[in-house]
Structure formats: structure tokens, C-alpha cells
Amino acid sequence: MTTGNTPPAVRLEGITKRFGDVVANDHVDFTLEAGSIHALLGENGSGKTTLMSVLYGLYDQDEGEIYIDGEPQTFDTPRDAMDAGVGMIHQHFQLVEPMTVLQNVILGHEPVTNDFGFVDEEAAREEIEAISTRYGFEVGDHLDVPIRDLDLGTRQRVEIVKSLYRGAEILVLDEPTAVLTPQEVDRLMEVMEDLRADGRSLIFISHKLDEALTIADDITVLRGGTAVGTVPASETTEQELAQMMVGREVLFDRKPRETTPGAPILEVDGLRVTGDRGLEKVSEVELSVREGEIFGIAGVQGNGQTELIEALTGLRTPDSGAVRFGGEEITEMTRRDRTEAGIAYIPEDRHTEGLVMEYDLVRNGLLGNQTIAPFVKNGFIDWEVVRDHTEEIIDEFDVQPPDADNKASSLSGGNQQKFIVGREIGHDPAVLIASHPTRGVDIGSIEFIHNRLIELRDQGLAIVVVSSKLEEIQKLSDRIAVMYEGEFIDTVDPNAVTEEEIGLLMAGQRLDETDAAETDSGVQT
């Protein structure tokens, strides 16, 4: 981290940004020291992305000044920001999927030959490969591969290479870990450390406290559009940051259980499911979920969890085996019929499965209720009832901004997620299947959603939770099944195992095999 007389890489003074009557940023000061990583934390809707969008030239500030390397700047467009050395990697990647990696990186910045103005792809290829080699990216090996054929972690590295290719010395990463697997998060952290070591300056937008404490030099917290404080990462804790974010103490501990599970209500026998590429993704899975129980499914993304949940919810037909609900087989039942029967679903991907982004919240509030009273009377939708229901969701789950006429696309990712959770709980189901229910949600909202799930469990609801967050699985679950290569490798008591032991199971290592190996090597357990 650069010190002494070197000016900060970024200095924002008194930045204010309004959208009508809403003040998204209220006289915010922010400083990014050269050669450092500065985390920008805050709840969903706290103004983090808006502030960085001002820095990147996507928005004009209403008040305040921007300084880059000590020089005042005015950015009317992102091109102006890029010309000043600022790059931004958005939460939702700005890539053209049918085009190759090379074409995406140089798009709008194509090098041309001196003679005829043709694109000099060879020069671009050499430069991109040099960047990839310098930072240990694999991007250089995929230059001719279409973006649509790459996993999310590689796509993100393409975005970073694109910014570096365009000369970025200052990189803004907006919620960069929201869509990544734990392994991809680890790789991203290594990339960020390499960039810092090379003298780049990074702003890391997040609501994940542990990640900010791991990677950042300094942390600034926004709440309600206002900067409430900046602290060195080495001198603070998760609890202190959480309190800064939400303005109150946040509880992280697992609550003791005070109720007893009832009879099995959702059962699966010998389930086999084929994935989109014709490969078997679920192999002979057996499970039983009881009334008043949270059944957790842990595992690294891609081990069959998605296909299993699709089979449980009616979105994918199993090859063999049976699904029973309330003692009746529902293996061939449609998704709509399962919704009407009482199986609610919080989907893994809120954009493609949970919401219609161009619909307002009222119409999104109707989804899943199109055939159910009181939302439908005599074959017609009662929009007044739907609106009342939507406004109840907005109020109870603190969806911001609280306007039922807003399009879903206008909400932050966390507020979109809160709306979906509220809508699905509002179906008054007998079984709730929740796939990554707090993905992209801030710490205060995570606590709220967790508490609601536990309350519903205690009222007798059977809940299936899929998550790659070990702390979430351990905090919520009464039993945890760990999925590896399409099978439940073990089902464990969360009070009797550590996160490290669950991690071993997620890697395909059975605990009894680990004990045996340690005993054979002379290690006492």
C-alpha cells in the first residue's frame, strides 16, 4: 500500500446523487489510497453501486467533486472514466455471449493497422496474452471461445482483463463474489491480491463481512446513502461492521431448537435425474423431510443440487424413482399443480426463474398465484387483492424502494431476493424449498430471512434449504445432507460436525474414512 506524499488514487468529496425525491448518496466522502484495496460495505439499497456509478461516469453527481490521482475530474460517460484509468466490473457482466473472448475484450477499443484501418487481431492477441500471463489468468487459453461456453468465474476474469486492456489502474468490483462458487471466490481473492501487489488500486463493493476483512486494507460502510465510517480492516470485527451497516446489534449465533419435528411430508426414493447435457446428475437419492424441520443440502455448486431441486419442484422429470408429498406420489405432477398443492419455491436464479424483470412488483407478486383464491375470482384476476398482497410483502420484508409500481429490474439484487422470499412465504405452503435464499442479500436481511425461516419451521412448516454457505447451512438446519457427484455422501447433525468436516464431505471425503486414515497414521481423534 502506497504511503507518503503520493496522492490517493481516488478522492470523492461530498458526493450527492438524487433520483427524484430519493437521495441515494448524501454528501459522501470516500478515499482510495493508491496501491490498496478498499471495501465498500452496506446493506442493499445503501447507495454503494450508485456511488461507484458516479465515479465510473454512469451517473452525474448533483453535488460534490471527483479527484483521480489528485487531479479534479468530470466524467460525462464511462469512456471518460476509462480514459482517466477507472474500470468497473459490474455484478451482471457486460459481455456479448455469442462473441469470443478476444472480440469482447477489444470491442470498442480495436487496434488497427496503419495502412488500411483493419483490426490488428494479432497485436490484440499478444497484449491480452501478456496480461493473462502477468496475473496468472486462464483467459489467454480461451481467446477464441464464445463467452457463452465459459463458466462464471472465467467470465469475470474476462471482464477484469477487458478493463486492464483498456488501461485501468483503478478497478471497481461490484459484488464480484455474488455468483461465484467458493473455489471461484478463492481464485478471485488471489487475483485481487496480485493486482494490488502490481500497484493497482481496487474498490471492492460487497455486503459480505468476512470477505471484506480478508482482502481489504480499509473498509467504508454506507447506511441509507450516508458514509457512517471508515476503519482499517485489521482493527475491526464482523460484529462491529454489522452494527455499522444496520445500526443495531446483529446476532450470528445458532438459535437453540425448542420444537420437535412431526411426521414426514416430503419423501424421495431412489431418484435419478439427467441434466441438460444428457449426463446423470442425481443418482439414487433418498430423503425424508418432516413437518417442522429444516433439511439442509450442502455441496459445491454443480454436484446435482440444481437438478434435485428441479425434480422436487416439478421443473424437471426424473428418469426413475419417486417423489411423495403428504403420502401421495407427485413424481409426474406439474410445477403449477405442486404450487397449488402447497409446495413453494425460492429459485436459485432470481432473474430467470424468480421474477419477470420488466414487470412491476404487482404483477410479479401474482406469479405462482394466478389460479389461486383470493387472487382469482370467477376466473378473473382481482388486481386489488394482488396489489394489497404485494404491498404487504414490501412492508414486511422491507423492500426498497417501497413502491409496488416499480419494475423488478429497478431494484437492487438483494431487494429483488427479499421480494421473492416474501412472495413464496405468502403462499402459505406446507413445504418451502429454498435454493440459496440469501444469495446477494445483506447482513441485516440475511438475519431477517433466517429468523423468518426458523419461525415458520417452529410453526410446523417443512423447509428444504440448499446453500453453498457452510455457516448458513449450519445455522439453519436440523439435519444436513451433503451432496457430492449426484449422491448424498452423508447426512449429519449440524451440532455434531464442524465446518471443516462438512467441507471434507463436500470434497467427497467420508468422515469415517478420515477417522480411519488418522488412526492408521497414529493420530488420535
UniProtKB/TrEMBL annotation:
<dbReference type="InterPro" id="IPR050107">
    <property type="entry name" value="ABC_carbohydrate_import_ATPase"/>
</dbReference>
<dbReference type="InterPro" id="IPR003439">
    <property type="entry name" value="ABC_transporter-like_ATP-bd"/>
</dbReference>
<protein>
    <submittedName>
        <fullName>ABC transporter ATP-binding protein</fullName>
    </submittedName>
</protein>
<keyword id="KW-0677">Repeat</keyword>
<keyword id="KW-0067">ATP-binding</keyword>
<dbReference type="InterPro" id="IPR017871">
    <property type="entry name" value="ABC_transporter-like_CS"/>
</dbReference>
<keyword id="KW-0813">Transport</keyword>
<dbReference type="Pfam" id="PF00005">
    <property type="entry name" value="ABC_tran"/>
</dbReference>
<feature type="domain" description="ABC transporter">
    <location>
        <begin position="266"/>
        <end position="510"/>
    </location>
</feature>
<dbReference type="InterPro" id="IPR027417">
    <property type="entry name" value="P-loop_NTPase"/>
</dbReference>
<dbReference type="GO" id="GO:0005524">
    <property type="term" value="F:ATP binding"/>
</dbReference>
<keyword id="KW-0547">Nucleotide-binding</keyword>
<feature type="domain" description="ABC transporter">
    <location>
        <begin position="10"/>
        <end position="249"/>
    </location>
</feature>
<dbReference type="InterPro" id="IPR003593">
    <property type="entry name" value="AAA+_ATPase"/>
</dbReference>
